[in-house]
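Q: For a teaching handout, I want to show students what a protein-ligand complex looks like in token form. Below are the inputs, and the small molecule is adenosine-5'-triphosphate. Please produce the holo structure.
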Amino acid sequence: MSELLRLEGVSAGYGEAIVIEDVAFHLEAGRSLALLGRNGTGKTTLLNTLVGATRQRGGRIVWKGQDITGLRPDQRAAAGIGWVPQERNIFKSLTVTENLTAVARPGAWTPARVLQQFPRLAERRHNLGDQLSGGERQMLAVGRALVLNPSLLLLDEPLEGLAPIIVEELLAAIRRIVRDEGLSAIIVEQNAMKILDITDEAVVLERGRVALTGSSERLRAEPDRLDRYLAVSRDTA
Ligand SMILES: Nc1ncnc2c1ncn2[C@@H]1O[C@H](COP(=O)(O)OP(=O)(O)OP(=O)(O)O)[C@@H](O)[C@H]1O
Ligand SMILES: [Mg+2]
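A: Here is the structure, written as tokens, with adenosine-5'-triphosphate included.
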């Protein structure tokens, strides 16, 4: 397998504040990684740093063998880093289909293929963005990232605030995308057990630093170790 992404001693934050410190891990192509940790521990900041939206203060980010530390966000996106922010950005005044076609780039993920993966979105394809439920909006946000045909998908708390049935639907779709289609992904999630079930490996942050890494399977089997770093996440396993 070939290495897709490597972080070496990465420190970053906003303005003068340093939020993540000395973060190091790597990801092989075709693998998926769960990024876990309590609220405010720097998970979003780490994704922001990968897309170039923070002030990096130290270390290197190596993408497909090239140091991208100095690249702008648009250059990183063009290089294949796709991002679904925690805020679920979509165009509210465009329909579902238009949201997808407006940003699509050539590749395996076409708007039609996204609608196949998300039947609920297909039913709503003529609805405007602001007529969608929270779950549908999240599915559309994921779909918009997919039609950009990235080499790596960054998902920031995709299940947050969704009804249980939607959580299961979205998880099933994410599982198909990362397991069956083999798209590399880094998924931030509060619900550790659910996301460890569909990812290959995990990184746990504590106060901006890597506290624990390992295979998702192993971490799932050792919930007591996880509990030391996560406040709330075991209940729904
Ligand atoms: N734009 C910003 N400017 C300054 N500080 C920020 C900014 N965004 C986040 N922070 C600070 O960085 C720290 C980490 O925040 P971050 O959003 O990365 O945590 P998180 O792990 O994603 O939390 P959550 O699970 O609540 O989403 C927090 O102390 C937060 O207040
Ligand atoms: Mg966050």
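A: Two things your students might notice: Strands lie at 3-14, 17-28, 32-36, 55-63, 66-67, 81-84, 152-156, 184-188, 201-206, 209-215. The mean pLDDT is 93.
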